[in-house]
Amino acid sequence: MTGKPSAGLARLLPLALLVPLVTACGGAAGAEDSDTVTVTVGYQSKTINTVTAGTLLRSLGYFEEELAARGKKDGKTYKVKWQDYATGAPITAQMTTGKIDIGSMGDFPLLINAARGKQLRQPTRLVSVTGYNLRGGLNTVVTRPDSDLRSLADLRGKKVSTSIGSAADGTLIRALEKAGIDPEQGVRKLNQQPSVGASALTAGSIDALSQFVAWPGQLAFEGKAKALYDGADLKLPTFHGVTVRKEFAEERAGVLDDFLAAQRRATDYLRERPVAAAESVAKETGLPAEAVYLYNGAHGIATFDPALRPELIAALKKDVPILKAADLVGDVDVDAFVDRAPLKRAAQPPSYPKAGAAKSELWLKGRDTTRAFDTPKALLKAVEAAKSAKSSQARAAYVPDALTGTLWFADRAVWVADGSDLRAFVTASHAKTYVGQHAGARVVDYADAVELAS
């Protein structure tokens, strides 16, 4: 790995972890009297790749239903305390003091969770996955819409905001190295919360923002950013998962089983009713439903499946050296951290197929389903047709990147006309690559692409 780790990184994480200990509400996780058991769940409402173990699960009430059924059998009253955070670090801080029982977070934070748990003698275990993308498309580097930056190579010497120790930071480090840029010395990296970085980008005080789902999509949808780098270029899986305190998992194995059974039900709901799920998450979080659907839709960037797939665990092991180089963890025994037993016990969740090739989609206003198209050109024809139909105006249109398959908003994509064909790309660099390989192909704006399709 190229690049030297910053000496200051080791000091950043403890600060991020210690702050929540002062501000969080009191009360031990798993607290109980003789008749009441309280389970505390830490989640990230706006990290919508975790909704089946967080926002959506909470709104559906499935975990409470499972616990109520358990209470009828054993005579106890079960209560769930949901605690919402912006990133995984404070969830880890609360878990390692015994104040959160179950939490969900991204792959890099999961490794920090494992390391911190072992270090502080409050070991944790990874028990399921929420959502994943096998190429890494959940993380994106974005810049301002009017920026002159065209590729990651243009970031040399620029200010880039990310959250140190997050999956998005991992993507940034790997992407910069791949571009021949020292990730610590070659750019001016700022360690910021996602919302702070998003505001800084809008204000023009930084040049780019590397963040995880759903920040890049939300900013693009709102016209506040354009994609500079698609994480799928790395061709390395990225995912979010569920971690649990080992002590809680052993003492309350049945409750953990109930949580995983509830997560399976929420996963089924999302896969069977993706539009309704997106609307629900949008209502709970204040995020645009169109941005939620970009990630969590029928052909969205994320695939939801609780299974601890071998390729995801293999990717987790490849993440360890990145965090070690940044002095954020020491050695992490990933195999010991992963516990497959609870998921096997919990009502045997079905084996969902891997995500296939993404298709273009059109979401019309007032509809609770979307239409899928085999080609971007067919989608654009439908978008144009919807303009003249008062009862079925287009709400959002999505297209997969022709190189990576990453879904993006059709009106925010970079379009290329290649003869009579039309192709869409998440980034200008992808379009440039395609044009360079296809004689006669040319970049066109969205309005021209719609006209050519018609």
Automatic annotation (TrEMBL):
Origin superkingdom: Bacteria
KW Signal (keyword) present: yes
Tagged with keyword Translocase: no
Signal peptide feature range: 1-24
Keyword entries, A-Z: Signal
Residue span(s) of domain SsuA/THI5-like: 90-277
InterPro entries: SsuA/THI5
A Pfam family annotated for this UniProt entry: NMT1
PANTHER family the UniProt entry points to: ABC TRANSPORTER SUBSTRATE-BINDING PROTEIN (PTHR30024:SF45), ALIPHATIC SULFONATES-BINDING PROTEIN-RELATED (PTHR30024)
Protein name: ABC transporter substrate-binding protein
Organism of origin: Streptomyces atriruber
